[in-house]
Fold each of these.
Amino acid sequence: MSGPAMAVAIGYALHCPPLVLFSLITVGFASNALGGAGGPLAVLFVAIVAAEIGKAVSKETKIDILVTPLVTIGVGVGLSAWWAPALGKAAMKVGSVIMWATDLQPFFMGILVSVFVGIALTLPISSAAICAALGLTGLAGGAAVAGCCAQMVGFAVMSFKENKWGGLVSQGIGTSMLQMGNIVRNPRIWIAPIVTSAITGPIATCLFKLQMNGTAVSSGMGTCGFVGQIGVYTGWMNDIAAGTKTAVTGMDWAGLILISFILPAVLCPLINMFVRKLGWVKDGDMTLS
């Protein structure tokens, strides 16, 4: 159902009329299925084009109830057959290069992947969809988890004075995207979470060898519903079942807990303290409306 859900969400954001919006369910299914592991990226491109063409023909004829769905679905499915396989393969190729580079240079790639995926999580885009489209697993997936946790737990703890327990829960196991309005007003509040992700990323890849061998979408979820941590644990179980891992060790658990919760909760407020001393961040800058 992820393809239909994404397509309808895109159509809603583009203010599509009902007939176009409902037709995008089929378009989303087709593009996601034909795009393979890179399906979410295919859905993005195909749904936008199909939605705009559907809007162009909507209410232009007396038989709109037939024409609009036929055109929207026809264009969407046709483009899915044409574009989706290539987009899916391209996304997977990019993901493979990122994972290969992370295995080769875990320190520098740990920083890059952690920072960029963490930023994507806080921006009004989907870090989970990006990781799913790229098939980001392994060490790169572990770095992605670190970056997402740095943003979510970092903002939750750092803004506790302003937002109390409700803010801690809504950001810590919800999403740091709630801070986007405050970031627009004062981008400097983003310094501490980004620097934290640049620290925890290479610690995850180099010290703890934290790998995401569960589903790729979990790499971009962080502590949201603890999906990132569940994904790492699922990967451990998969590895044990495949015979590539003998058991879950204490080092595994220590790495997961430190990277996901403890280090972001300690480092982010500490870094923000220095940012506040510079006068760049003040009380109330991170208050959630």
Note: The chain has a mean pLDDT of 92.
Amino acid sequence: MRGKRSLKAVAFLAALTITAGMTSGLIQSRYAPAPLTAWADEEGTDGNTGTLYYTKYSDHVSVWGCDYQATSLEVPAAIEGVPVTVIGDYAFDGSSASTITLPDTITSIGNWAFAGNSNLKSVTIPDSVEYIGIQAFDQCSVLSEINFPDHLIKFDGQVFRDTPWLEAQRKKSPLVMVNGALVDAQTCTGDVEVPSDVEYIAPSSFMSSSVTSVVVPASVKSLLSNTFAFCESLTSVELKGVELIESMAFYDTPKLTDLKLSGKLKTIEGSAFMDDDNVRATITFYGSEATWNGVEKDSEEAYLKNATMVFDESHSDPEVVKGDINDDGSFNIADAVALQKYLLANPDNNVKNWKNGDLVEDDKLNVYDLIAMRTELTK
């Protein structure tokens, strides 16, 4: 068995190596800010500021390297009058800097951007950041404090692996969440129900965990690559609202025999169930057979081809009630009280589904939502 695992692991890592650039590109195109046109059309001009190396385009600047001996690095908001919006892949990996300051113009942080930094104890993610790449802070061995903006960030896989910050969060809860994003669940065991206020699950979140069953709420629309890879004890998964299942999402899940899929499902990418050729599963689809036939998928993929299909058209997800942040099924004064306590940092705030409280729809929960909530209640 150990030899078999080693061979599978080698194959898996080889596949990741081959597809890493492609996968990152797909994720960025799907979840990161819309690409700037100049990036695609221009070659750009390289330069340096003394401690930083960058490429300047007509409408943005991407920082891609630094002086690795510098103990302090500060990224400017603009270079030659052009805004700095991207921290590129490997930009600060292995640097000696103990302080790194990022401006509020940064929208994305690249793969392994800070990886291997042994001096960085604290970092503040700017409010403008929307996407953070693969293992961006991997093996930052003293990174214990991370200040996040109060909105959803799309994290790629294992962004904070081998950091004191992640270990501290795992001690609080095996479901590590940041503003509606599930960042890590690898220490989860047994049966898990992802909270209803989670709307994004990072790639590889459950990888190699000892979970036996997982229920994913209707708020999550995509199941990304490697989410359940190597979950050898996983027998049951329910995806209440998932519309996309990416390649390798269920890589090597030999006991996954009970899969429930949303009737809103549109696409199952090829090789989503790699290495599960011998699994005989029951797939319950919350919709009609005609709707299932319309799902974009490889019907010859062994896991799907060997499955017994059950069509359940009676199933429906609970109605989303805007303003219902205490998740009791109705919107009333109790929700406004809960939000006010939340904004005052009162731990007894009863906020269970922050997304329902985002009445101004800016992926933030703040005083503007409280004003909107009071206005609605007054009506």
Note: The two ends are 65 Å apart (CA to CA).
Amino acid sequence: MSEKIKVAIIGPGNIGTDLMYKIKRSKNMELAYMIGIYESEGIARAKAEGINTTTKGLEDVIDIDDIKIFFDCTGAKGHLHHAPLLKEKGKIAIDLTPAAVGPYVVPAVNMDDDMLKQVNVNMVTCAGQATIPVVAAINEVADVEYVEIVSSVSSKSAGPGTRQNIDEFTVTSKTALEQVAGADKAKVIIVLNPAEPPINMRNTIYTIVKNPDFPKIKEAVENMVEKIKVYVPGYSILLGPIIDGNKVTTMIEVEGLGDFLPVYAGNLDIINCAAVQVGEAYAAKLLEVK
């Protein structure tokens, strides 16, 4: 087997467990540890997969030299504690929480050599990963003055972590739409939909643009969707883009891979797929250095 970079997951909840299965398929990464703070279902699943585990927290693993990359799947408060510890030890942190210690990274938009020089990067939010690429594509050809996102996810796919961090998710998504996608002003609305059977993640993107050139906008959005599908196969355009004057409306749907989470939990799946894509890039760089 070709050489791989060893990585660890902090937080064996739903996102961490799903990420475990995705990393097991990785080209450049080997999952060396699942890190928790108590015996949980996620820890048990990791053990069953032959992964090393600890219930003593990050401090129990951080000094293992071979582990170069840590995926933090805890919460905003958890990562604020973990980030300085990882930085001090020279580890790379891929942050899936809304803590936003490091710069926002969206693989289809700003994953470049400069980003790979960062020791801590933030995966924005589920809504951010789903909508920022489309807004960035529209902004590049039409100059987005204002964007409003309505991200609707199944209530069943929103666990305690999501619910406890809902304000942080909203603010982080808004900020990243402005800083990464380039919108002059953004607004984000998140809807937890209790429908049965559960719905797939859907994101309605309303933009007001300065240059409403429909052919250019349509081509830019379609090209961006193809870039995203490379690492999020269940990503698709549900509607549009539709242009009415200077208003552009696009609806995106995200269906999950079903590795651990249900396929309707595309909101959780997309941030994991994006995180793996970022991890692959870091690992590839580390392997080239070797």
Note: The chain has two domains: 5-124+270-289, 126-263.
Amino acid sequence: MRQTDGSAGDANYGAIGQHYARYRQPEPLIEALILDALADASTILNVGAGAGSYEPRGRRVTALEPSASMRAQRPADLSVAIDGVAENLPFPDQLFDAAMATFTVHQWPDLEAGLSEMRRVTRGPVVILTCDPDEVQAFWLNEYAPEVLAAEARRYPAISRLNAALGGQADVRPVPVPLNCRDGFNEAYYGRPEKLLDEAARLSCSAWSFVPAETETEYVRALKASLESGDWDRRFGQLRSQPAYPGSLRLLVARPAQPGIR
């Protein structure tokens, strides 16, 4: 469905996306993995491009984003994003060297159609940054906000489903999350739990928008009380100095099945 600002998925980015450019900055370590996966592609399609995180500079990037709020937050040095959705890409077959989609496939109303379209218009690798739903609820936040992570786990498609829809040969790579991760998804705060007391930080993680306001208030109160009592640190305090967290984040790199095409 289309939301009021054009958002095509189940989250209304007109309501929750105002702070994305501030809280969802590209994390250099994740960015390096994406650039490596894109290899030497010079023309790249970014589907569900949002505010432009992880778009490589110095390449010819075509960005597609249905949310007006997210398009408006793109930095001036990036191309203007096209208003469109993954399921109906307005491009001819095999136009791009590579395609990418970061933190977006869980929003698509018709996942298979969107991935099929990405494969259709791409000669080389299709690179997807997503989360493994089987690992989402292993994060400590599940102790304080279980409905948030349950919503997140429900929304992310299984890695096997992504593989099947893209065809070809897919490589699934775990993505470690660094301690001071600049990209503010839930697991980015694994060693900085106080950050999740910030309403704008929570709003920049769409899963929080799927619980009632009173439930969110209860969850925040429980986390705050645990931090103030020292209980969080007794249970999870070692994470404050752990350099990286091996969470649910995954990078899927799918190459075309046709022989002779890289």
Note: The longest strand covers residues 249-255.
